[in-house]
Amino acid sequence: MYSKILRLPIGYFTEQRKGDLISRVTNDVNEVESSVVGTLEGWIRDPLTITFTFITLFILSAQLTIAIVICIPLIGFMLGRVSKALKRQSNEAALKQGESISILEETLNGLRVIKAFNIESILKSKFNRVNDELLTTKNRISRRRDLASPMSEFLGVLVFAGILWFGGRLILGGTMNLEGSTFVGYLAMFYNIINPVKSLSTSFSNINKGYAAITRIEEVLKTPVMVDDNPTGKALHSFNDKIEFKNVRFAYDDAVILDDIDLTIEKGKPSRW
Questions:
Q1: Longest CA–CA separation in the chain, Å
Q2: For 187-196, how does the pLDDT look when each residue is reduced to its tens digit (9 = 90+)?
């Protein structure tokens, strides 16, 4: 990020707020780090646990396991709604964080002007408003993130109760060849999946929260560098004679600044237009 910032053209910084860039380099990078570290262990352990448990359940009773698999898309859809909202709100929080840092950075740079014109109260109210909005957004993120884990556990208990009812009816009705002790073991085995599923859903929430930060980081990293060193250019190690510009033109998107400029700078002499 820092290397890319050094290579970006000056025009980029006239369009972007410094505080937002500082927030991307600090807060967003930390957010990505915490989301990766927090989910790496769970992504290795929990899927293996769930896979081997489902294989065992399928061996015990294919009929009940198929019924469980049918319920999985519904559970995934409900948890996905929570994670999707979390991603959107995380991006909103990152924008508010950048705006807050921008106000602070502008205040520190222009403190003499602020005190000279006695506008402390205006900037204070602006800073407080942005931070109140940031607090509200972060509270929404916390509620969404904390909702994912108990929701997955609650849905798992509902599926558990449904299997108990469905399997019990099949066994008592004699339509499924499964002993009562084996059925109890099946239920115990299924209950062991709930905690790994809960951890996995929390990992998905953290990933979606970190994905918003990754998007903001990539916006900087993928910004094209309009002016760069010529890889085939000649390296000059000393200034021996003169520097000469011919027919120089420079323009922004909406205005031409220099047009057909010739400039000669001789060594040890003032420049000539």
A1: 106
A2: 888 777 777 7
